[in-house]
Amino acid sequence: MVQFIFKACSTGPVDRHGKGEAVADEILGLKAWQQRRLMTIRSLAAAAKVSPVTVVQIEAGRRQPRPGTIRALSAALGVAPEQVIEFRAAMGYQTSEEKSDEG
Questions:
Q1: What pLDDT score does 25 carry?
Q2: What is the tens place of the pLDDT at every residue in 23-65?
Q3: Across residues 60-84, what is the average pLDDT?
């Protein structure tokens, strides 16, 4: 089981090494957030009440997450959905590749 600690005046969870706080504009992939929080695929899936297979498929780009899954995984990670690359695509945000194609 993953244990989080809260720093005084902190706005969110941190890992037990104090390195897990999310910066408001920091955007990382699902796997990177999972690793930053020192969570396994199983522990993340359990915290979000989704299947570990779902997490693996989202990370691999084989499945686009549904809104409820996005909310659950974001909450389990303690980040805004907009901070997870895979969720940004599912929510309709432009990726950097799409922006460069427009130029």
A1: 76
A2: 567 999 999 999 999 999 999 999 999 999 999 999 999 999 9
A3: 96
Positive/negative CA dihedral, 62, 68, 70, 72? negative
Instruction: State how far the alpha carbon of 32 is from the alpha carbons of 7, 8, 22, 99, in Å.
Output: 22, 25, 12, 23
Contact 61, 86 (CB under 8 A): yes
The 3-class SS string of 29-77 reads CHHHHHHHCCCCHHHHHHHHCCCHHHHHHHHHCCCCCCHHHHHHHHHHH
**CATH T-level fold of 1-96:** 434 Repressor (Amino-terminal Domain) (1.10.260)
Question: Using CA atoms, how far apart are residues 76 and 47, in angstroms rounded to an integer?
Answer: 6
78: three-class secondary structure by DSSP = coil
